[in-house]
User: Fold these one by one.
Assistant:
Number 1:
Amino acid sequence: MKHLNEEELIEHNYGKSQDSAAGEHLASCPECAAAFAALRSDLADMDFAQPPARDAAYGERVWRSIAPLLPAYETHKRSWLHGGLLRGLSYAAACAVMMVCAFFAGRLWEHKQTHLAQAPVPVAPSPAPVQKHAAPPPQRVVVVVLGDHLDRSERLLVELKHADADSPEMVSPLRDEARSLLAANRICRKNALHDDDPALTSALEHLDHVLAELASQPGSLNATELVRLQDEMNSSGLLFEVRVLRSRVPDRQPRGNNRSNGGTI
Amino acid sequence: MFRMGKNDHAAIRAVLSGDKDAYGALVVRHSQSLFRVAFRITGNEADAEDVVQEAFLRGYRKLESFESRSSFGTWIYRIAVRCALEKIGSRKTGDAGRVGEENDPEQNEIQVADGAAGPDRLLLSGEIGALQEIAMRSLTPTEQTAFVLRHMEDRTSEEIAAVLGIQPNAAKQAVFRAVHKLRLRLAPLRVRI
């Protein structure tokens, strides 16, 4: 039989329920019952001093002694409210100032970005710093210019293909247009070379050759020269090549380095 | 002066609305019970009165945090027990050396004559009471408070735990240790009675 230890006896003594397992054990175990009786006796003998009686006026005396030390809650609350209100207003003002600053900063940033996008990008021998600043917006301008150049070139080649040597009034404008396109074509070719775009470079070289020949004619083209140019154009498939490149222009938008063309073309 | 007809919660509402005197009703109503427990823990009348005042002062300052679901009596009682605990804690820190000497069980052994309650018997009874008080003061503040609340105030382990800010099992263990120590300390008296 397992006897109850002191802790269990103490627990049983202070416990509310007397019909527990400990109680049953005590009823059947004289040894534990004796130990429990000794515990109760010891606790009963602990005759600690009883609190001295306080008279009926004790509470009022306590109140009188502490009342002067207590601030009225209304005042306390009002000052809290006052402080809280001020603090709240300060926070609100600070938030409002921050929001206004953020708004104007945003506006300023947007304005700056718009200026960057619209500003002409100068052609520079080493374009790296310019490229750093100008990201997508300048690129858009360049693509339009390149596309325009190819459009104009395509029209010129079509007109050249169908030109009639017997109609000098038709051939003369072709020469002027070729001169106009030549400078732009060289810049485009230079940048295509720089961009390491072999297809564009090759096509622009062919175009450059045709444009140069066309532009260098002192007078109106004679029939022989015209036929030679038309044959050259047809044999190299230049018109087809220009059309293909023209169709590629939208796909070239993400590529960045042609952007420097935009300012000079 | 005091609106004694009001219950505690009404008085608290009045206090928080700015009627400071309404707190007086609460003080008058609960001073006696606070003094009783404060005296049992501190064992000293002057300290007990200090504890009562300190408890009501703290209670007033914390009144906004009082939850109206609970009883003000229980709430202020807990504050008073904590104040008393701090009181005996600080006192024990200061008196550590002296208490150590007084707690020597060998020195506390006395001869107690058996017989009718004559003058000698009364004198010895007083000495026994004093030794019991010394034994009580040898407990840690937590053990002493737990024992007082359990043995004299008839509080449950859960209530003791809530007052002391410990787990119920820890409160129970504190009571066990207190009873064990007291029995050991008072064993010499018991043998000779």
Note: Confidence is low (pLDDT under 50) at residues 1-5, 97-117 of chain B.
Number 2:
Amino acid sequence: MIRIQNVTFQYKGSEQGGVRDISLSVHEGETILLCGSSGSGKTTVMRLINGLIPHYYKGELSGSVMVDGMDIGNTELYDLAGIVGTVFQNPRSQFFSVDTDGEIVFGPENIGLQPEEIRRRKDLVTEEMALSSLLNRSLFELSGGEKQRIACASVAALLPKNVLLDEPSSNLDWKAIGNLRRVIQRWKEQGKTILISEHRLWYVQDLVDRVLFIRNGQIEQEWSGTAFRAMDGAALQRMELRASTVEQNFSLTQHENRETNPTAGEICFKDFYFNYEKKQRLFHRKNTQNDPDGHLTLRVPDFCLRRGCVTGLIGSNGAGKTTLLRCICGLEKGCGGRIELNGQRYIGKKKLSLCYLVMQDVNHQLFTDSVEGEVLLSMDRQDSKAVSEILASLNLADYAGTHPMALSGGQKQRVAIASAMAAKAELLLFDEPTSGLDYVHMCSVAKLLRNLAEAGKTILVSTHDPELLSLCADDILHIEGGQITEHYDLNKDTIGKLGAFFTEQIG
Amino acid sequence: MDAGMDRSRTKLHLDPRTKLFMVFVVSVIVLMTATTPLTWALRIGITFVPLALLVAEGRVVSALRFGVLYAVALVLLRFFISAESTGLLMSLLIGYCAIVAQFMPVIIMAWYLIRTTQIGEFMSAMQKMHVPDGISISLAVVMRFFPTFKEEYAAIRDAMRMRGIMLGGGSIVKMVEYRMVPLLFSCVNIGDELSAAAITRGLGANVKRTSVIELKLTVTDKLLMLCFACLAALFVAAKYWKAL
């Protein structure tokens, strides 16, 4: 039983993300979905319930929040540990241990349970969530999806009656989302009270009893689960929400009026072979793995991308998508391979001059103290006129003097793209550019990719987000087990194929 | 018994308390200057213990790397460098060799401690030694952050390589700045989210923290501790009791 009464909260030193006069009561065993754009206040609602507000995040708070008869404002956070459990968005930053076993027992150890009881609970959640294959492993070698399963398990080990999930699918592929869905389903069967805040609605919509739409810090609309499931895609888009069914992820509405330049030619990639050396060696040995029979992480002898087009790179988790991107831009030293463009061959480090990779965590690739400096850093010759042109084309002109770390996620991404343009990169590679983005931001990434393509750049984007592909991809490159299995134009006839790939993954 | 115990049975598995004691002893020896051949022999001899332990844990490559580095520094210091050596290169080499020869034993020991100890074990050991939770939790966070630093640093280096700014345009300040600024930002962010996640799972509760890992000192542990205690005593005696 969760009761929020007339709560207003404003973060200290920030205008954004607060809530205004929110009231909400959730019955025991109910499953609630909170939707709405980023910054609408979904996360704030979660933090009000798990006590991080007011105990960890400071600000001005009025009103009262009660969970199972406890007043959150007057209860210490550690006393809430066995009552409210929270699964967070980022799998990388929510584990405390280095190994999986330690992580699952971390909560019960904190609240001082007896070792026998802790072991019993660990066995219980391991059994329930089928985690035995993940036990006794280093958390740093797990995939994002596996980390998120451990995060769920460590929450479950505290046996909380209320579970909050704050955008838990942001960094997951469809297979991991399928697993997450099964965990939520089980918690629902166990009668837990569940609140899920999400942008991706399709995987939870049939589990929820009520849906709340939050905008500007207020609950603007409320539907029963049945009423929400009856809504069509267009209505959702008007509210700037993402697809609520699996099928809506695959609609090619904006595909018709698209122009590509058939004479633009191709960029070709030859002989990309690579193997991750797992075994530690005494001295680093450069390995040119052109052995055609050996087991390789990546075996891509030959493919071409149409210039001025957006190509979506898909494949299941661990198929080699990121490895391929890294090899193409020359970040993997052991990988040979060459790029051919306009009759010229680019090998080794020369590939770097042709490509630019926009990383999944864009924070890693911003180095200077101003947006302008960031762009200048990529130029051989300092040309401030060109800089302002590039910034203007990416809607960054007003931020030329701003520190990149003070920008929003989408703006940071555009700064990275700006420096790619300044470096005169022909081929832009994107690694999961839309993970954790809401509908509006996802659309603006799609539009940005289209604009870049129309300006003549060649785009290769690795993604788990079929909505993004439906909006902007011309071609699909499918990779499995380090090899290209399919390469096709995305159109009305082939969209089914794309759909089949993703739906198979959910399992 | 759970799966976590399997690993301990297959390999030599020391109690974290033993490892901490060994780090302490080696630090003491390293921080006192060796003057006589006997003290030098003791100091070099004690370096073989963590090397042997690394080999016993199956980390042969690391042991070899450390061993070679240490040996080279010792040989250079003993035979090729004298007090009369001059020049920039020579003085750099002297400084480098002296640091390696002086501190390598404790570096190897600490590396062994970090690499072969699970955080759970470590916390359990700290509890047994009645160290306050505040201290043991902080140390555990430090241990947890090593791999995070490594991951973040590798990602940043990739990004630098891609933009061709590894050398910071020839400026050492820039080289450091480009590495440190993004690293600090992302570590602060991770740390912030990490603490939020940890306290929602009861970290800092005012009950006595428990541990599923039950530690017991084995015969090997006791022998090693005794052996190290003797070595420390011998070293101190050799240094301050002139008769030896």
Note: Chain A has two domains: 2-249, 306-332+345-506.
